[in-house]
Amino acid sequence: VDVSKRPFLVRTEGGEQLRTQSMIVATGAEARWLGVPGEDRFRGKGGVSTCATCDGFMYRDKPVVVVGGGDTAMEDALVLARTSSKVTLIHRRDTFRASRALAIRVMDHDKITVKWNMTLVSFEGSDQQTSTQAYAGASGDDSVSLPQLSHVIAASTVSGARERIDCAGAFVAIGHDPNTKLFESQVLMGPNGYLVTLNHTTATSVQGVFAAGDAADHLYRQAITSAGSGAMASLDAERWLSAQGFAS
Prior knowledge:
The chain is α/β, with parallel strands linked by helices. The protein has six helices and 14 strands. Strand 10 and strand 11 form a beta hairpin. The mean pLDDT is about 95. This is FAD/NAD(P)-binding domain-containing protein. Belongs to the class-II pyridine nucleotide-disulfide oxidoreductase family.
């Protein structure tokens, strides 16, 4: 992508070149994963997730694990504690990076247990038979074998001792990386790589370039807020094009 001059230039992987007077960047952000055994196998409906507000309801009255020590991990633990039977928070250090207010709420919560100085080593479980009707809303009595998380293994960063923690779900909350490398040195970004928007709009530092969704939002990261900012960006882009005389 080249937004240094107009018309802007976009090159696709297939070699096609597109030119445009305006652009909405909605490239999103990728959740960081641990990269440990079992993570890929159980990701999604198997029990491993990065979104407590999206998937937490599936573990009502069941034990869950949260991995992380920042604000996102604290918020996820508190959200899950509303419905899950128990929340175990695994953190690799002996202090949280999160704000003091959130950390106090977590440590004072009677349904949240903190495992200090520990890292998650692996996600463990087995394949279980699940009816297709329950899994996909289909009719009939057919069943499928799906991986299901049953516990995680955590290790002490001090002694190396390992511990099994039973859980039905596990939530990795160690941060996100915005997909904005295409715009490095071209569009103003914050310290974490999120595009900076100006004056409560979706406009960026480059006239005609607008940002929507998680590419510019490090705080909410929800589908509904992304959809709303997408609508805002389309309105901002249309108004900008009209003001420049490009829209009829």
